[in-house]
Every structure is written in C-alpha cells, then in structure tokens.
Amino acid sequence: MLDHLKHGIPKSDMHSALINRFELTPEQAAACEKYYILHWRGAHFKHVMRNGIITHQGVDYLVVYTECKPTDILTSSYLYVSFRKPAKEYGLQAYVLISIAR
Questions:
Q1: 43-96 pLDDT per residue, tens
Q2: What per-residue confidence (pLDDT) applies to 31?
Q3: Would strands 95-100 and 32-41 be described as parallel, antiparallel, or unpaired?
Q4: Has this prediction a pTM greater than 0.85?
C-alpha cells in the first residue's frame, strides 16, 4: 500500500516534483524508472506530440509546458524536453516537461 515510501519521497511530493521541477534532484531521479533531458528541434516536437501526449521509447508522457505557452513552441527552433516516469510504486503518470532553449 505504501510501497512508494521505500524511495523516501511521499507520493504528493513526488507528484509535485514531476510536474514542477525541470531538473529533478538526485533522490527524485533515483525514484524514477526513466529520467532524462534531451535537446530537440521544435519541428521534431511538433511532429511527435499528439493530443498533449508524446510516446517515446514505448512510454506515453503527458506534456507539461514550463515557463512557456504551447503557442510559443510553434515558433521555437530548439527545445529542452525532460522525460520522467516515476517508479511504478507511485502509481503516477509519466510526464515530459517542455522548455524553450534560449
């Protein structure tokens, strides 16, 4: 029932970090099955995002825009994309945070 506590991070704190922190702490990253940051061309993002979801390496990630609006992405040349899939014990959605590369 409280299996996620083996990671030392309460579920509510983990959820908050997943949707609000572009770069996770080492402890938060260790509590993820997948966590990585990529640099993508804006055109590639527009090609792979469908209905607010990006499927990458077989995982569906819900898109969260950080410090930008979805319309900003349309004119951006490069983006940073931060993928995070929490450990299954959390029972939480996988997310990808999007930020414009400056």
A1: 888 889 899 999 999 999 999 999 888 888 777 789 999 999 999 999 999 999
A2: 96
A3: unpaired
A4: yes
Task: Give Cα 12 distance to the centre of its chain.
Answer: 16
Q: How far apart are the first and last CA of the chain?
A: 43
E-assigned strand segments in 1-102? 32-41, 49-50, 53-56, 59-65, 78-86, 95-100
Integer angstrom CA distances of residue 61 from 1, 2, 76, 77: 25, 24, 21, 22
Contact (Cβ atoms closer than 8 angstroms) between residue 96 and residue 54: yes
Q: Cβ(53)–Cβ(96) under 8 Å?
A: no
| Residue 1, burial from CB neighbour count under 10 angstroms (0-12, 13-18, 19+) | exposed
The pLDDT of residue 28 is 97
DSSP annotation string for 21-48: -SS--HHHHHTEEEEEEEEEEHHHHHHH
